[in-house]
Amino acid sequence: MAPIFPRVLLIGKYRDPSSGPGLARLATLLHTLGAEVFLESHCAPALQHDLRLPLLNLEDPTPTPDLVISLGGDGTLLSTARSLAGSGTAVLGVNQGRLGFLADIPLDTIEETLPPILAGAYREDRRSVLVAELWRDERRIVSGLALNEVFVHKGCGESMVELRVLLGDRPLYTERADGLIIATPTGSTAYALSAGGPILSPELPALLLVPICPHTLSARPIAIGDGLELRLSLLAARHPAALSLDSHHSYPMQAGDEVRVRRSPCEARFIHPLDHDFYGILRRKLHWGELPGEERC
Predict the structure, then answer these.
(1) What is the Cα–Cα distance from 20 to 15, expressed in whole angstroms?
(2) How many other CB atoms sit within 10 Å of the CB of residue 156?
(3) Distance of alpha carbon 181 from the chain centroid
């Protein structure tokens, strides 16, 4: 039987030759299952192993892959998913990192896990994506995507930033803090969680606003609907502030700049095994909801 995903593109952690054996293992298995296998061209120079695979550029792939397998940690998977957002191409995360919250399939179990997926036995998981724009003097100077969070912060300075936040045309609040995180449900288990924010179920059409070390003790995280645009005006900053997207790209800001954040019409499409369970991962990976000494589920 032909695989559901006949063309598969493999991606490893960039500039990391340690991903070579794992990619070779995946390529061998995929060939056995009847798939045509490609290697992402930016990964190839770092690999010491001669995989002898045809190369594809993720930014302009020809032919278009049916499935992309990301080998590494959550950071590698996020970078891959950002590049593919809106393309409709499915992404599968194989964990060779530390936590592996999104890249939830251990490499050690891949021979048992991957064949059913290629035969069509999988669970699909679509995640929201944010568009962030940096405006200065009524001119857009930066635009980018974020899967986890958009973060406006004090940069390398020691002083707080002062932000005015609007939801559409309605004022939410003015806040002095070290920064403000605007997180998707996906990002609610990342930086926003470590900053004291709640966990949002992945399917919720919501955004999470989490202040970092706010000046007032009354400032608390808040979840809002993602149907309206958020506008963050930088009112004051003694030192250059910054806009960061998924802790991957960072752009300098100055007083008077405005960041506009909205949900993108495109989505990231993840593939998981049939037994994938978001709440089970919370329990296993983050020990969520466990009592001291309680046996893990």
Answers:
(1) 11
(2) 10
(3) 14
Catalytic-role residue among 16, 60, 74, 246: 74
Kindly state whether residue 2 falls inside one of the protein's structural domains.
no
Q: How far is CA 168 from CA 205, 220, 230, in A?
A: 16, 20, 6
Q: What is the CATH number of the domain that holds 30?
A: 3.40.50.10330
pLDDT more than 90, % of the chain? 70
Indicate if 66 belongs to the active site: no
Residue positions in the annotated binding site for NAD(+)?
A: 74-75, 148-149, 176, 178, 189-194
Tens digit of each residue's pLDDT (9 = 90 or more) over 194-216: 999 999 999 999 999 999 999 98
Residue 238 is assigned to a structural domain of this protein: yes
Q: Detail the residues annotated as belonging to a binding site.
A: 74-75, 148-149, 176, 178, 189-194
Residue 296 lies in a domain: no
